[in-house]
Each structure stands twice: as C-alpha cells, then as structure tokens.
Amino acid sequence: MTETPDIVEDAPETTLPDETPTDTTDMKQYATDELAKEAGVFNSLWNVAGQIAETEFVPKGLRGSPPKVFAAMLTGKGLGIDPMSSMREISIIDGKPNLSAALQLALVRRAGHEVTGEAGADKAVIEGRRKDGESMTVTYTLDDAVKAGLVKLDADGQPVAKSKQGNPLPWQKYTANMLWARAVTTLVGRLFPDVVVGETL
Q1: DSSP character for 156?
Q2: How many CA atoms lie within 13 A of 154 on its CB side?
Q3: Closest by alpha carbon to 184, among 75, 98, 104?
C-alpha cells in the first residue's frame, strides 16, 4: 500500500485565542496583524514554489508550474500538512485539488476515526468507524474497476492496463494497491467528507 505521508500533528486552530481583543479598535488592529502574518506565510510558500518547481522533488504533474506547486502547498497548509508532503500527496485535476488515498487515510486517522481493511487481487474491503459510532463498509472489486474503464481483463481474467507506449500501468502492476486506494477514497467520501473537505472551506 502507499506510504502514509507525514502529518503535522498540531494543525492550526481555527478558533480565536483567549487573548483576542474585544474592543473595536483593537479588533481591527488584531485582524490587520493576522492578515499580515498570513500574507507573510503565503509569500514564503510562493517563493519556495518558485524555487523548487523545476526540480525533480516535484511530481511530474506539478513540475515546472509554480502556481500549481503553490496551490498544492496552500491546500496542504489548510489541512495541517507540511509543504513537501503536500506536493507528494496532492495533485491538481481539472482545477481541483485531489488528495491521495494515503493522505486521506492519514487525515481520517489523525482525526481520531478508525479505518481497517484488506486488499487482494480481485477486491478490497474496508471498514470505517467514526468517533460517534457511525460505521460503514465499502467493497471495491476488480469488476468495478473494469466498469469504470480503469483496467481491462485479458482472456485469462488478468488485469491489463498499458500506456500508449505499451508499458504496464499501476492497475496492471499493483492491482491490489489500486483497489485499496479506490476503496479508501470511496469510504472517505461517504463517511468522512468533513475530514478532507470541511477544513479547507
């Protein structure tokens, strides 16, 4: 299975600290100061994105594009993820950030929810349980992947997925891992959407 990314345990709090001023004038100054701090962080991330965008540390889907690298880092910041992990685990698809299965699973577990399961050559079964007790089981099969157009089966029922150059793709080489990833993202979208969406709104 995909390596679980590093997560910043102490994610930024969204509530105002106790020392937040209540006087109108002080509040305006406080807001101005906080905005200045955020602007400083954004500028720092933008500068870093520009410096590393052309390097091999950046995945091909983001490489060469400082705005894409910056967007991935900014998305990760909202989830409490360090910049380098953000680049590894967040891609930009059709203008929207896409979190890897490994990152989604790490965020769900960091939030205190439970996820268990197993994957084989023909299916992945995963069960999730929220802290409040709500649970769900998701099964993603090789037939589901075929119906979705992600992979084909040969005459012997073995998965086949090749690039235009004829090289085997992950769905052919690492079928169990790909089934697991699909099961994870399906479960997270159904049972834990607040973990991967709510914090970024």
Answers
A1: T
A2: 7
A3: 104
Q: Which residues contact 125 (CB under 8 A, 6 or more apart)?
A: 117, 118, 119, 137, 138, 139, 183
- What tokens were used for 141? 């099969």
Q: Which two tokens stand for residue 45?
A: 């991330």
Q: Where are the domains of the chain?
A: 3-7+23-99, 112-192
pLDDT digits (tens, 9 = 90+) for 127-156: 999 999 999 999 999 999 999 999 999 999
Mean pLDDT for all residues in the chain: 85
Taking CA atoms, 126 is separated from 4, 45, 72, 118, 139, in Å, by: 16, 36, 27, 6, 6
In angstroms, the CA 189 to CA 196 distance is 8
Give the integer Cα–Cα distance in Å for 40 and 35: 9
Lookup: tokens for 142:
């090789």
Task: Work out the angle at residue 130's Cα, subtended by the Cα atoms of residues 128 and 133, and round it to the nearest 5 degrees.
Answer: 105
Rounded to 10 degrees, what is the CA torsion of 20, 21, 22, 27? -100
Taking a C-beta distance cutoff of 8 angstroms, is the pair 76, 82 a contact?
yes
d(CA 172, CA 178): 9
